Amino acid sequence: MGSGYLVGYSGFGVQYESLWGMGIGLLIGSLVILLDLFFKKATVRNVLSVFLGVVLGLILNKLFIDVISLSNLEDAVISKLNFISALVFSYLGAVLILRGQDEFQLMIPFVRLDTKTSGNEIILLDTSVIIDGRIADMCETDFIGGQIVIPGFVLKELQAIADSSDGLKRNRGRRGLDVLNKIKKSAHVNVKVHDLDFPEIHAVDAKLVKMAQEINARIFTNDFNLNKVAELQGIKVLNINALANALKPVVMPGELMSVKILKEGKEENQGVAYLDDGTMIVVDSGRKLIGHTVNVSITSVLQTQAGRMIFAKAVDEEVR
After folding, report:
1. What phi and psi, each to the nearest 5 degrees, are found at residue 47?
2. First vs last C-alpha separation in the chain
3. Residues 128 and 224 in one domain
4. Strand 256-260 relative to strand 293-304: parallel, antiparallel, unpaired?
5. pLDDT greater at residue 318 or residue 269
6. At 36, is the pLDDT very low, low, confident or very high (cuts 50, 70, 90)?
7. Residue 77's pLDDT is what?
8. What average pLDDT score do residues 262-290 get?
9. Number of C-beta neighbours around residue 202 at 10 A
10. pLDDT score recorded for residue 279
11. Is residue 24 part of a domain?
12. Over 215-274, what HEC string results?
């Protein structure tokens, strides 16, 4: 009776060990396949993040096993626990670092997980450029590279504007939130909301400048004053208005074009027309031609901080 029981127990042990070995083999094979698929698409930054996460996980596993070793468990059990916990802690460490690369950089500033290539630059969006809305169209064109970060305090400011009792402010805030949703759904950019805050600083612009200094980021804005303050602090600024001005078509004095005069100008007998990009054209003696399309000749071009102004005169009395 006792002998048969021992034989049965021995057979069960052999079967258990066989299943254990098959499970380990299946796990290792799956891990190899997943790693191969990951490294084919991963960037250097992601590979370094995974490596650092695995190292962190193994350190935590060593501490865990040292604590378990103080118990009365058998060495064979501890050995199996060591193997399983090493896999679990390595996976958790890799996922933790991979998903929180920017936050990890903030906690340990001397560890740079991002490379120096422009594709991995961090771009902070301010409230004005979000409400402006053109940033969403730029994201759709795949023109902007790098990590787009929306600070939590900027999101709070947008929500406060959207909840304002003033109808105009409320519409601007809601427009900004709609633009953010459009950006986050874009397949061309990677967008994150960052909760880093500076309670001792009250002004949102000042917080934005401080955050850009902390994480070595650029600021995307169309706010002239923020642009100047950031540049004084040595922060790189992407100004959407400056980009729009740089992309406007070049017109030269003497060039002819056809425009529709929409309203009267500030000076006597002046009319005002606009190009498709919003550039204002002041037409001399154009007040009487309001509502008509006329041929004009460019007389001069004035570049200001707010943009360009084009001055012209009608070349004939023919209207359309």
Report:
1. -65, -45
2. 113
3. yes
4. antiparallel
5. 269
6. low
7. 74
8. 83
9. 8
10. 80
11. yes
12. HCCEEEECCHHHHHHHHHCCCCEEEHHHHHHHCCCCCCCCCEEEEECCEECCCCCCEEEE
32: pLDDT confidence band, cut at 50, 70 and 90? low
User: Domain count of the chain?
Assistant: 3
pLDDT at 15: 55
142-161 residue pLDDT tens: 777 678 888 888 889 988 99
Q: Write out the residue range of the structural domain in which residue 200 sits.
A: 118-246
Write down the pLDDT at residue 42. Answer: 56
User: Domain for residue 169, yes or no?
Assistant: yes
Contacts of 280 (CB under 8 A, 6+ apart): 272, 273, 274, 307, 308, 309, 310
DSSP codes of every residue in the chain = -HHHHHHHHHHHHHHHHHHHHHHHHHHHHHHHHHHHHHHHH--HHHHHHHHHHHHHHHHHHHHHHHHHTTSS--HHHHHHHHHHHHHHHHHHHHHHHHHTHHHHHHHSTT---S-SSGGG-EEEEPHHHHHH-HHHHHHHTT---SEEEEEHHHHHHHHHHHT-SSHHHHHHHHHHHHHHHHHHH-SS-EEEEE----TT---HHHHHHHHHHHHT-EEEE--HHHHHHHHHTT--EEEHHHHHHHTSPP--TT-EEEEE--EE-SSTT-EEEE-TT--EEEEET-GGGTTSEEEEEEEEEEEETTEEEEEEEES-S---
> Rounded distance, CA 106 to CA 128, Å?
26
- Asked if the model's pLDDT at residue 308 lies above 70, the reply is yes
- In this prediction, residues 111-125 reach a mean pLDDT of 58
Q: Per-residue pLDDT tens for 225-254?
A: 888 888 888 888 888 777 777 766 677 888
Q: Average pLDDT of the chain?
A: 76
Asked if 83 and 192 sit in the same domain, the reply is no
Whose structure tokens read 């698409």? Answer: 41
